[in-house]
Amino acid sequence: MAIWNLGSINIDHVYRMDSLPSPGETLASRSYSIGLGGKGANQSVAAARAGASTHHLGAMGRADGWVLERLADSGVDIAGIRRLADEVTGHALILLDAEGENAIVIHPGANRAIDETALPDALSNMAPSDTLLIQNETNGQVAAARAARTRGARVIYSAAPFDLEAARAILPHATILAMNAGEARQLFAGHPGDLPVAGLLITMGSEGAEYRDLTTGQTWHQPAFPVDPVDTTGAGDTFAGYFAAALDEGRDIPAALRLASAAAAIKVTRPGAGDAIPTRAEVEAFLARQPI
Ligand code: RIB
After folding, report:
1. For position 102, what pLDDT does the model report?
2. Could you say which DSSP state residue 20 is in?
3. For burial by CB atoms within 10 Å, which of 16, 169, 217, 265 has the most?
4. Are residues 144 and 57 in contact, defined by beta-carbon separation less than 8 angstroms?
């Protein structure tokens, strides 16, 4: 069992603000930091720190070797990451307000210049028991999903950043669709009626998360663990990566939801995205302190 992730790799430039600027307004930040990010890289780090054998497929520029080192240090297999001479590494400008809420601008760079024709080969070692993760920050989503489904593998698609056309294109090839509550509202409005996937994972911040098994009609709800958030960036990615890792190791849905929810709760108490994702040992210790 293993996790393969066609995912974005970003350098996050994070500006802490008292409040987010309105259109036309100029504000000075209180602090500035740089860290590992990208919805894909964050999910790979989460899956690897959860203990899953994790292979990242993606692209970045020729510079920024520290990004690769940080992924590898987290336990991610980086052999499937290409260095592109004519593209910059993707990056994100992240504005964080005093409550830890964010506004993000991304420049895709190499994330949208992945060689799609190479994806079926890159996934040729996938087994039917493996899982492919995809988000909406790279090109090649449908090619990768098709290749994975051909091999009988599970495909978990995070519809983020939300784009209805991208979601529609991937739906016939996805097994599980992962979204936050806002993304789910947009999807249900734009795609009324039945969805051709086996399950929906919906994260709702402080209101918890739920998984709907569309094949049986059963729904599980996981309350959020109460914490004081300092930075919500990457919380959804942490949830998705841990959830996938839990399914990969054979956990059932309630156990996967609980593990992922605990990981996301710890993440929001720490500044940063990929760098702030907890290890499995930290998550288990956190869970051991919770009332049953
Ligand atoms: O989901 C959080 C991520 O979104 C950040 O790390 C940023 O890079 C953007 O891709």
Report:
1. 87
2. P
3. 265
4. yes
Q: Above 80 in pLDDT, residue 292?
A: no
Distance of CA 188 to the CA centre of its chain: 21
Cut 0.85: pTM above it = yes
Contact 177, 210 (CB under 8 A): no
> Which residue in the list 12, 77, 130, 237 is annotated as catalytic?
237
With a 6 A CB cut-off, is 104 part of the ligand 1 pocket?
yes
Label residue 75 exposed, middle or buried (CB < 10 Å: 0-12, 13-18, 19+).
middle
User: What would you report as the CA-atom Rg of the chain, rounded to the nearest whole angstrom?
Assistant: 18
> How far is ligand 1, taken at its centre, from the CA of residue 225, in Å?
22
**What residues contact residue 259 under an 8 Å CB cut-off, 6+ apart?**
50, 242, 243, 246, 251, 283, 287
Indicate if the pLDDT at residue 219 is higher than 90.
yes
Per-residue model confidence as pLDDT tens digits over 167-184 = 999 999 999 999 999 999
Per CATH, which fold does 3-9+38-89+111-288 belong to?
UDP-N-acetylmuramoyl-L-alanine:D-glutamate ligase (3.40.1190)
The full set of domain ranges for the chain reads: 3-9+38-89+111-288
46: which residues sit within 8 A by CB, 6+ positions away? 237, 238, 239, 240, 241, 242, 245, 263, 277
